Amino acid sequence: GSDVYATNGSRRYGGDFQGIIDQLDYLKELGVTALYLNPIFESPSLHKYDSRSFHHADPHFGPNPAADIALTAGETADPKSWKWTAADQLFLELVQQAHRRGIRIIIDGVFNHCATEFFAFADLREKQKDSTYASWFDVHHFDDPSTKDKNEFHYAGWWGLKSMPEFVEVTDEKGKKNLHPQVKAYLFAITRRWMDPNGDGDPSDGVDGWRLDVANEVGTGFWAEWNDLVH
After folding, report:
1. pLDDT digit string (tens) for 16-29?
2. Can you tell me the distance from the alpha carbon of 148 to that of 127, in angstroms, rounded to the nearest whole number?
3. Which of 28, 114, 117, 143 could form a disulfide with 153 if both were Cys (CB 3.0 to 4.6 A apart)?
């Protein structure tokens, strides 16, 4: 194509969790003791800092993307609605195989913003102020359905990028900047999911650490509580 950047945005070159598993012995021979992965969560982009969900690994990193996408249709913020996809299970196998070799796994948490395809934002975009998730985002104006010729829906995006809607910040009871309680509950739930996948209270089967994207753009009230949860 004439626009190499637009064309390249739709290409995937086949890297996946199995590819990392296949190279773990080599990495151990090199003396590697930890792997930090850029965002692994489901995302429409290749950089993956715009997540569709934080509770699933991207299906393209697993063995059956189409089946995973179909399996997760209709999930909500309620952890009881979440399933384990083939990509999720392969990632957990990667964690297990790495641990057997004395290698730890660090993943990337992007808790300031998401993708426009993020399940909560997609619901908000469709239902506007009637959405269950209307309070999750920093919405400046909802669309007026009486004006058919324009869309007044306006919201805050990370550094002005509308492709990355920002979660709304609130002031908590301690006077600290925090995320909305419903957003916080969701992020706490996905933290537990990846750190203790079988939910038995023993985190040895989960990830070993987090790298946090644009952490300075999330309130310290949230980080204090999240830090306590992680420890």
Report:
1. 999 999 999 999 99
2. 16
3. 143
